[in-house]
Amino acid sequence: MFEHFGIKDFIDILLVAALLYYLFKMVKISGMRPLFIGIVVFMIIWVLVSQVFDMVLLGSILDQFVDIGLILLVILFQDEIRRFLMSLGSKKGWKFISKLFVPVDKQQKDISHITSIVLACMNMSKAKVGALIVIQGDLQLSLYEQSGEIINADVSSRLIENIFFKNSPLHDGAMIVVGKKIKAAGCILPISQNPNIPKHMGLRHRAGLGITQETDAKVIVVSEETGKITFAEEGRLKVNVNPEELQQLILAE
């Protein structure tokens, strides 16, 4: 079986392993890791039965499951497949290739808008004002922007605090920041169904986590009950973040 194994076969296996690892990271974000592991184990058993041990009867039965399973996989992982294709089509998916040909701009970035966001979160944390701020990555958030009120204003700590003021009509929704602009506020986000979210976290945290499972956005949540700042990215929550950590997390690539 392995007598004709060459460099092309090694590259083939390496690419499949890289694809499986990338898919594993994506389903881990959405909380479907046990299902993904179960499918991988089934595929290993199928290969062993059909190709290695050449069990005809059991192999033919498993072949039928595989034929139907392809359709089931598309249904079960439709959100992950959509996110995978969106990632490939975004500039983030080609970032590594572009670095090989385009010299990196080493000029210092203007982070004044990030400083304004951090300052506003610090003030809201002290006053225990609830907030949900979404910072767009490479994937567009136009669909979620349309669910709220379009603002399209420069990022300002005072404006952020006024939007999330308790008597403001927009304070219950999410604010979406695109570049140096507050694009929209009062936006509705998808709610995460991840069962591992702590029970004491409310809808703000679940919505913040939900958008990071759908896109590559970074999210800041300020708790109305405790005033603690939580940072969400790639389906993971980092709780009780201080202002210095928050700025580093936002700027991290």
In short:
GO terms for molecular function: adenylate cyclase activity; ATP binding; diadenylate cyclase activity. By secondary structure, this protein is of the alpha+beta class. 52% of the residues lie in helices and 14% in strands.
Structure characterization notes:
It is a single chain. The chain has helices spanning 7-30, 33-52, 56-76, 78-89, 95-101, 112-127, 142-145, 157-163, 203-214, 243-251; strands at residues 131-135, 149-154, 174-178, 181-187, 218-222, 229-233, 236-238. It has 253 residues and is an alpha+beta fold. It folds into two domains: 7-101, no CATH class; 112-251, YojJ-like (1 (3-Layer(aba) Sandwich). The protein has a seven-stranded mixed sheet with strand order 2-4-3-1-5-6-7, with helices on both faces. A hairpin with a 2-residue loop joins strand 6 and strand 7 (236-238). The chain is elongated, with a radius of gyration of 22 Å. It starts with 6 loop residues before the first helix and ends with a helix.
What order do the helices and strands come in, and which of them pair?
Blueprint lengths: L6 H24 L2 H20 L3 H21 L1 H12 L5 H7 L10 H16 L3 E5 L6 H4 L3 E6 L2 H7 L10 E5 L2 E7 L15 H12 L3 E5 L6 E5 L2 E3 L4 H9 L2
Parallel strand pairs: 1-3
Antiparallel strand pairs: 1-5, 2-4, 3-4, 5-6, 6-7
Helix pairs in contact: 2-3, 6-8, 6-10
